[in-house]
Amino acid sequence: MPTLEVLFLLVVVFFSISLVWTTLRVGISPMPSSAKAYQTMLMLTENTGQGAIYDLGSGWGTLALRAAARFPDRKVVGYELSLLPYLVSIFLKQVYGANNLTLYRRDFMASDLSEASVLLCYLYPGGMSKVSALISSAQIKGSKLSSFHNEANQLNTTTRDALPLFVISNNFSLPDHQPEQEIRLNDFYHSPIYRYRLD
Ligand SMILES: C[S@@+](CC[C@H](N)C(=O)[O-])C[C@H]1O[C@@H](n2cnc3c(N)ncnc32)[C@H](O)[C@@H]1O
Question: Which of 14, 94, 163, 165 has the fewest CB atoms within 10 Å, measured from its CB?
Fold first, then answer.
């Protein structure tokens, strides 16, 4: 077999193994949110102030890119562990010139979310338990959330330092929290989209 073809085959095998390996490791594949789901998630992101939007597990970058385009004045951050989706998302970010989007190949559990105003999630039940634990640890570290809310409910993230304000989740609920909004999509499963306000 010619060398180029062998090389191509090796690259395909490497990325396929890496995709399967990371899916098994993190507990979910990089399947993107459906069109109805991301439209609803972005609609629920309206009226959440001007603070940073974080996509926890940004996959191929499709949701994060749309968030960056919809909210050009807000910082958008994506964390993704899976190599191939991450590389594709970096490529798409360059293609679309999304200057307000920053993508990291990193475990969001080991990342600093203190700047986040909105956490976007499309994970799985165990992943949402991790997000819940992350929020609790942010609360334990101490936040200025109450002073933030006392400031006339102005959604200005400069007045707080340790806690995300909103969690918007596709399909999976956030344990130990009550959603302020739950929208059922007009799809086969009537999939829920939840919005939690953390105060
Ligand atoms: C179902 S996809 C969602 C992609 C995108 N957020 C969307 O809604 O279109 C979930 C992604 O989360 C990633 N993921 C899961 N746990 C993670 C973690 N702890 N840190 C970073 N990425 C993670 C997975 O690799 C996967 O690509």
Answer: 94
